[in-house]
Design goal:
Pathway: Purine metabolism; XMP biosynthesis via salvage pathway; XMP from xanthine: step 1/1; Purine metabolism; GMP biosynthesis via salvage pathway; GMP from guanine: step 1/1. By secondary structure, the protein is of the alpha/beta class. A 6-stranded mixed sheet has the order 4-3-2-5-6-7, sandwiched between helices. A two-stranded parallel sheet has the order 1-8. Bound molecules: 1-O-pyrophosphono-5-O-phosphono-alpha-D-ribofuranose (PRP) and magnesium ion.
Length: about 160
């Protein structure tokens, strides 16, 4: 996979605002959500925001791993399945939450587990967009989103002292 050309760094403040915007959109979708199923690890933070905003207290995880190094996606592995209780009715009234959909492979795997669930992500790239029902911001396929939990502040040398070679 070629390195993404564009970077989209997201601060904690921006991510909180975008996750709350997703909660707003979801508040009009369904009267009573049975539960949230968040796709770890990226879905954990948006699920915390949405559960607080929508008052959803039953939160389940489905643990999926695929991107094993910087930007290349390996084979998708389901490390922990969804509680069978929530698989009844094919996931009707269940809200699946993730941070983003990129190629859509993760979304496809989890959707297949609960075809009637509502799938929401904060960000979406074009290839994954058809797999999600509600999202906030689309970014181009060649953009890499840098999430706040992957970043930190670092010292920047004064311009006069020149930059490392
Ligand atoms: O649409 P896709 O191409 O499948 O990519 C999207 C998935 O990739 C990332 O998770 P990752 O597998 O990196 O694990 P993590 O959430 O634990 O970081 C992200 O959180 C999504 O779950
Ligand atoms: Mg993930």
């Amino acid at each position: 996979m070629s390195l993404p050309e564009k970077a989209f760094p997201v601060s904690w403040d921006q991510f909180h605002r975008d996750a709350r915007a997703l909660a707003w959109r979801l508040s009009g979708v369904n009267g009573e959500w049975k539960a949230i199923v968040c796709i770890t690890r990226g879905g954990l933070v948006p699920a915390a925001v949405i559960s607080r905003e929508l008052g959803i207290r039953l939160i389940e995880t489905v643990c999926v791993a695929s991107y094993h190094d910087y930007t290349s996606q390996g084979e998708l592995r389901v490390l922990k399945e969804i509680n069978p209780e929530l698989l009844k009715d094919e996931g009707e009234n269940v809200l699946i939450v993730d941070d983003l959909t990129d190629t859509g492979k993760t979304a496809a795997i989890v959707r297949a587990m609960m075809p009637k669930a509502h799938f929401a992500t904060v960000y979406a790239k074009p290839k994954g967009r058809p797999l999600v029902d509600t999202f906030v911001t689309e970014v181009s396929q060649d953009t890499w989103i840098y999430f706040p939990w992957d970043m930190g502040f670092s010292y920047q040398k004064p311009i006069a002292e020149g930059q490392p070679d």
